[in-house]
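Reopening this ticket.

The earlier resolution said the output was attached, but the attachment link was broken on my side. Pasting everything inline this time so it's all in one place.
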Amino acid sequence: MATFLHRLGAVAYRRPWAFVLAWFVVLASIIGLAATSGGHISTSMTIEGTSSQRVLDQLRKELPVASGGQGTLVFTVPEGERLDSAARASSIAEAATEIAALPVVVDRSSFAAGAAQAADPSSPPRDESGGTPESPPATRPLIANGSPVPGVLISPDGTVAMLQMQFTTQVDALPSGTTDDVVQIAETAVADTGVTVLPSNSLESMHPPIGGHEAIGLVIALLVLLITLGSLWAAGLPILTALIGVGIGVGGAFALSSTITLTTATPALALMVGLAVGIDYALFIVHRQRRLVLTEGLSTADATARAVATAGSAVVFAGSTVVIALVGMTVIGIGFLTTMALVAATTVTLAVLIALTLLPALLGIVGERIWSSKARARGTRPGGKRLTNRWVELLVRRPWVAVAGVIVILGLAAIPASDMDLGMSSGGSDARGSTSRQSYDAITRGFGEGFNAPLLVVANADGGATLDQVDLGGIAAGLNALDNVAAASLMGANPDQTLAMFTVIPAEGPHDESTAELVETLRDPANPLTTQTQATFGVTGLTAVNIDITDRLAAAVPEYLTIIVGLSLLLLLFVFRSVVIPLTATAGFLLSIAATFGVATAVFQWGWFIGLVGLDTGGPLLSFLPIMVTGILYGLAMDYQVFLVSSMREVHAQDMAPRRAIVAGFEHASHVVAAAAIIMVSVFASFALSDDPTIKQFGFALAVGVLIDAFLVRMTLVPAVMSLLGRGAWWLPDWLDRLLPRLDLEGEGHAEDQPKTHVPVV
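Inline output:
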């Protein structure tokens, strides 16, 4: 491969405009397709085969009008005022009427009539509108002009009102701008009345949470590159190539969004990972070119081709490990997770391809100007020991202290992970100033937190019976009598009288354990209510869907971690031809993961220092965070492992003593690995400043994970353990040595055979 990459780098350097033009044509084409394809962003995350999804599928078949999404508008007034004055109630009624007339909003009477036909005298009475079920005990309908307003509940103290609406389809499938129109109608109706309209998070505009915070990470990355490479030209090229790569990758995802489920988090995650690896991979090649020019006196052309052949080979391996880890998530069989993984893997693949083709072409355009004579002279002068050199010498002298210190630090950091709760985001964990958080808090204040977690319970008559043979009133009473239920009411039934729907309000919020227990109780075929009413129950709704997703993903984590550990051991065995180094590297990775989740739990769940990420309330960690972070960090950890330890192996292969080889190899590679890690941490940390809680958690966890793994594991624990083991670190049984293929990871064997065109060193 090194020979091919050498030729590729040489051709790209000699004919740069052909490569540059080709990549910019690809970029322009992707941007054009994305702009004209009407990109579709989805906020819903579902998993086929779960209990909640089966109920939704049943509703789509037997009662389609009830299978769409739901939304809530909350109306509030300043402290000390009320909403049920004549003027304010009339304005809210006007908003409710106009919204109900929209073609995308379901007329609830279309399925409430079925329940009225089947209900016996003991069933819950309907209100005067005939379109809504009896209000739960803690609430009452808003009265306007002497009549209840359909779909609008008001809190007992009159300070909060809630308009609940049912759509004909899922919210993310509504025509563009529909949710904005709904909010605008309400705001127009209550204008000049002192009423504030707060849409729930399901009604907020759907757009990828990408803002200006990413620029902070890019600025820090540019500064690190300037310090590392010593040239504005050299520092700017990795930034440029990374931006082109993510432009193509993220733009391509938008172009395909009409055929794939693209969640709001997917583009942001791809941008986050693509920028980080794109900058790092280009840095490795430019740094190698710089070293070849400044220390060996090669021409920039020869140095570029050699850098692509040597460092480029390592970049191919590094990128492959990240891609394999991401693509490995597809075996879990979760649709939205597969899409996230594949889009992120695509951006990593593009980062590798651009580093091997576009980067040397740009170096060809810049030519010898990339290094001034002053830079060449500075690069050949002897200098004092770097901080990294002093650090590795200290590790070699005191390896037991280093090993014990890292294990203790990471062990303590991992303790909170034992208390980690997983869940999906809700308005309750958003920043206090956000509209979704204000809506969540207003509902909690006015009605109770359970109203933020409504459940849709579907009752099916047993044995082919119809609803007129089932006591619907008894079911409603039974639901209200269950533990952890604040209120339950009949919602409607299908025309065939085979199923009825109930709204069940839990006593606590969407992330409370009691709510999950309630869902489990309702689904249990042996629950007393099923025996009493001769009906079976299914549960769906956003809260139930999120509970199912969390359970499924939590169960998948051990399976995926097993795959990652096995893959790590196998790959590193091939690369380093050692039994001990793969074991050490993998154990270090497991320590990194445990500590990362421990720190994330302490911040986002326990609320320690949570203000640093712009939040004020703790909540569960995202249910898909462990799998995604494990996969991404595995790939990045292997990158740093390879760049550091392969340098040590190269020196050790020249018969240098083990400890001296550790010091020499560390001195050779550590400063560029440290720079790459700082860049990654900066890029990821900038995403932790996002307004979106999902992206905050991803950015924070990845930044902490890279910081821990690069500096505590790869640059401290690994060299300390290798120093303790001495020659034993490179032990490999003879029979296994004969079986394993030999990999020239950085193409050094090829590089030694290349002719060198020297230039004068000033």
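Reporter confirms the inline version is readable. The CA atoms of residues 310 and 748 lie 6 Å apart. The longest strand covers residues 485-493.
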